[in-house]
Design brief:
With about 230 residues, the protein is α/β, with parallel strands linked by helices. Helix content is about 40%, strand content about 20%. It is built from eight helices and 13 strands.
Length: about 230
């Protein structure tokens, strides 16, 4: 069962979130402060966090930053709940490592769609919990990657990119498709060289010979793919 933590200080919103998500089959736990949220996450890591920006004892940004600086927690998806749709605040949250945001008031179906999209992108709703390519193993439940018996540590963005390619085995994905899969807003907050940089980093970490890649292949004029 997928575990979602809701960290929100508005009791009405929190109650509605808990009821709706439980009805959808999620296991839900709640907190109303940054400190309570930290305690909850330290006790047991969730599959996704819904995080209010403004909390009584601090900012949701602080909690997001704390999670992204912890190697055990940095890949847990975060969706910000915010009453402010100002671009500066949105960009700040995304730059800190949030996976998406939704502004209040929001429609229930929209929120569920966002949650499903993020979980799918991170592989946490995939029926296949383990993906294998040559000597590479991707455990989508634990969000861990191994080459043989050696664990390969990836950043959140590197992992999302790898997972997108892996879950589209033998399919050529264009740059636009990869941008759309990794950044929910179509990539408008990154420059066009970013994808090339992340492909290069992945190859350096995963390929036996990054100059002759066998896992992540370039299909000239089209994009990239994993597979034959």
């Amino acid at each position: 069962m997928t575990h979602i933590y809701c960290i929100e200080d508005d009791s009405a919103i929190l109650t509605a979130l808990q009821y709706t998500l439980t009805q959808e089959g999620y296991q839900v736990q709640t907190a109303t402060t940054v400190r309570q949220g930290q305690t909850l996450i330290e006790q047991s890591a969730p599959d996704l966090v819904l995080l209010d920006v403004t909390l009584p004892d601090g900012s949701g940004y602080d909690l997001c930053r704390w999670m992204r600086e912890d190697s055990r927690l940095k890949l847990i998806p975060i969706i910000f709940l915010t009453a402010c749709d100002d671009e500066v605040n949105i960009v700040m949250g995304l730059d800190l490592g949030a996976d998406d945001y939704i502004t209040k008031p929001f429609r229930v179906r929209e929120l569920l769609s966002r949650i499903n999209s993020v979980l799918r992108r991170m592989g946490r709703s995939s029926k296949e919990s383990v993906l294998r390519f040559q000597d590479l193993t991707i455990n989508t439940i634990a969000a861990r990657v191994f080459r043989g018996s050696e664990e390969i540590f990836l950043t959140g963005m590197e992992y999302r990119l790898l997972l997108t390619l892996a879950t589209h085995h033998n399919q050529v994905l264009t740059r636009d498709q990869l941008f759309e899969a990794i950044w929910d807003l179509g990539g408008e907050y990154v420059n066009d060289n970013t994808l090339t940089v992340y492909i290069k980093r992945l190859r350096e970490k995963l390929e036996k010979d990054p100059a002759q890649p066998q896992l992540i292949k370039t299909v000239r004029g089209l994009g990239y793919k994993m597979g034959d």
